[in-house]
């Protein structure tokens, strides 16, 4: 058992491109061995049947010579016939001959030297005729009735036939092993070749690259469709990442612009006053009262600048003071997706519940990125003429965002990743990991409802105390 478990563990560590062809090869080898065993069993049965027929033909000639002697009741004549037959060894060599009466006693019997005392089979006493191969496979017993009270038995030497049968058996075994190994190897290579497109797609997915057109064989339409679908998916992923990068850059520039404007406004006023104070010192520095007023003003200006710097550092410290989400941010996301949706013939609708606050205590950048990913996926999944709907509402101190599409549905593993917050390595390129990470930062949760008639309903719950 430990050896079997270790072998199974070793097998499971093999790559799929080796395991599947290996299983095919083993199955082909086992099937070939099984059919050979059936063939060998059939050959053995045919050998026994053939030997039995040969024995009955032998008894035909022997019976023709015995019947006249038995009709006369001449036991000596019966013995002479048996001795003459034993002396003639052309074709079939007989080893022991006997004629039995109705009680099973030998009326006459002869045998070759060294075979004395070998008993005849008991079933010969109760059957009209028959045959049985001896236990050593070197001879066969055959018998038949001659008249109502006598039967003849013969033990024939079949050593030559047995040797030929063994040679045939071993020849079949060796030929079967050779053919089985060749077929298993061919099966392994064919299965490996059939798996080549899957291995190629897996390799390029792991690298995040599209499959080069030179590797797509038009002679294999099925694998060609698979590889082109993967390429389209990779292109879509790159477009989405580029859009996210553009959005991030726009957000960064907007933050820098607001920061610059704020600093310029907050710093300019103290600096203007300080310049005036310096000018006052130049003109009236010899007057103690004017000098003191100017110095006090400069000190207050410096303190004001320090407060501006402290406030800026506090506001833009990582993880603190994130810009709050506004309704305008959600409308911006809808407008970002609208261009791609229009090219695909998809309508993107936006509906905000009446009475929703214009500003919410949620990190605007993270929410925008999550929604952008969800809406892009929804638009790509929805066919021409379909609709994608974004609904915003507030429920029990939670912001509820719903993205509803009319696509073909979401893959079960992607839905599980979104709902459970666990991603697989192959999903990161599709934006799933980004969504999961941002939702975790926002302390939110995702619910996915894929309808059997098509379409996906994604509900995102975000607590409104995320920035508190």
Structure explained in plain terms:
- This protein has 468 residues and is of the alpha+beta class.
- 59% of the residues lie in helices and 17% in strands.
- The chain has 3 domains: 145 residues, 2-Layer Sandwich (Beta-Lactamase); 81 residues, Helix Hairpins (Orthogonal Bundle); 140 residues, Heat Shock Protein 90, CATH 3.30.565.
- Helix 5 runs parallel beside helix 6, helix 8 packs parallel to helix 9 and helix 9 packs antiparallel against helix 11.
- The longest helix has 64 residues.
- It is rod-shaped, with a radius of gyration of 49 Å.
- The two termini are 59 Å apart.
- The relative contact order is 0.06.
- About 1% of the residues have low confidence.
Task: Draw up the topology in text.
Layout: H1 2-13, H2 16-72, H3 75-87, E1 93-100, E2 106-111, E3 129-133, E4 139-147, E5 150-157, H4 159-194, H5 196-207, H6 221-284, H7 288-315, E6 324-326, H8 327-343, E7 347-352, E8 359-363, H9 364-381, E9 387-394, E10 398-405, H10 412-420, H11 432-441, E11 445-450, E12 456-463
Parallel strand pairs: 7-9
Antiparallel strand pairs: 1-2, 1-5, 3-4, 4-5, 6-8, 9-10, 10-12, 11-12
Helix pairs in contact: 2-3, 2-4, 5-6, 6-7, 6-9, 8-9, 9-11
Strands ordered across the widest β-sheet: 2-1-5-4-3
* Shape verdict: rod-shaped
Radius of gyration: 49 Å
Could you say how many structural domains there are in total? 3
State the helical fraction.
55-70%
CATH T-level topology of the largest domain: Beta-Lactamase
Reported for the largest beta sheet, the result is:
5 strands, antiparallel
How far is the first residue's CA from the last residue's CA? 59 Å
The number of helical elements comes to: 11
Structural class: alpha+beta
Class of the largest domain, according to the CATH hierarchy?
A: Alpha Beta
Mean pLDDT: 77
Record field, number of beta strands: 12
CATH architecture classification name of the largest domain: 2-Layer Sandwich
């Amino acid at each position: 058992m430990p050896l079997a478990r270790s072998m199974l563990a070793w097998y499971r560590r093999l790559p799929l491109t080796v395991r599947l062809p290996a299983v095919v090869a083993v199955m082909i080898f086992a099937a070939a061995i099984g059919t050979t065993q059936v063939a060998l069993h059939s050959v053995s049965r045919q050998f026994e049947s053939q030997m039995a027929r040969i024995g009955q033909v032998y008894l035909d000639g022997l019976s023709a010579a015995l019947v006249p002697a038995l009709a006369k009741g001449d036991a000596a004549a019966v013995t002479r016939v048996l001795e003459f037959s034993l002396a003639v060894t052309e074709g079939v060599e007989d080893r022991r001959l006997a004629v039995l009466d109705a009680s099973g006693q030998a009326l006459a019997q002869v045998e070759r030297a060294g075979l004395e005392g070998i008993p005849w089979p008991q079933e010969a006493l109760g059957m009209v005729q028959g045959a049985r191969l001896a236990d050593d496979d070197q001879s066969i017993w055959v018998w038949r009735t001659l008249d109502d009270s006598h039967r003849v038995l013969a033990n024939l030497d079949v050593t030559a036939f047995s040797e030929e049968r063994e040679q045939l058996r071993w020849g079949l075994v060796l030929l079967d092993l050779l053919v089985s190994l060749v077929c298993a190897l061919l099966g392994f290579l064919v299965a490996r070749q059939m798996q080549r497109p899957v291995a190629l797609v897996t390799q390029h997915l792991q690298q995040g690259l599209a499959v080069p057109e030179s590797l797509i064989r038009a002679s294999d339409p099925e694998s060609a469709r698979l590889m082109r679908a993967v390429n389209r998916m990779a292109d879509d992923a790159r477009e989405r990442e580029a859009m996210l990068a553009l959005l991030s850059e726009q957000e960064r520039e907007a933050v820098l612009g607001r920061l610059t404007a704020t600093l310029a406004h907050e710093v300019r006023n103290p600096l203007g006053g300080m310049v005036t104070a310096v000018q006052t010192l130049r003109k009236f520095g010899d007057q103690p009262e004017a000098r003191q007023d100017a110095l006090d003003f400069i000190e207050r200006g410096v303190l004001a600048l320090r407060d501006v710097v402290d406030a800026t550092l506090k506001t833009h410290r990582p993880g603190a003071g994130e810009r709050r989400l506004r309704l305008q941010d959600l409308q911006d996301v809808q407008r970002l997706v609208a261009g791609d949706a229009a090219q695909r013939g998809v309508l993107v609708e936006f509906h905000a519940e009446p009475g929703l606050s214009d500003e919410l205590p949620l990190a605007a950048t993270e929410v925008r990125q999550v929604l952008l990913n969800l809406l892009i996926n929804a638009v790509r999944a929805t066919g021409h003429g379909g609709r994608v709907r974004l609904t915003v509402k507030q429920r029990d101190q939670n912001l509820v965002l719903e993205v509803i599409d009319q696509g073909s549905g979401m893959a079960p593993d992607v839905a599980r990743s979104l709902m459970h917050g666990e991603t697989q390595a192959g999903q990161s390129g599709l934006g799933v990991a980004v969504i999961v990470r941002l939702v975790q930062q926002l302390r939110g949760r995702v619910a996915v409802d894929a309808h059997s008639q098509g379409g996906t309903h994604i509900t995102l719950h975000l607590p409104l105390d995320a920035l508190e």
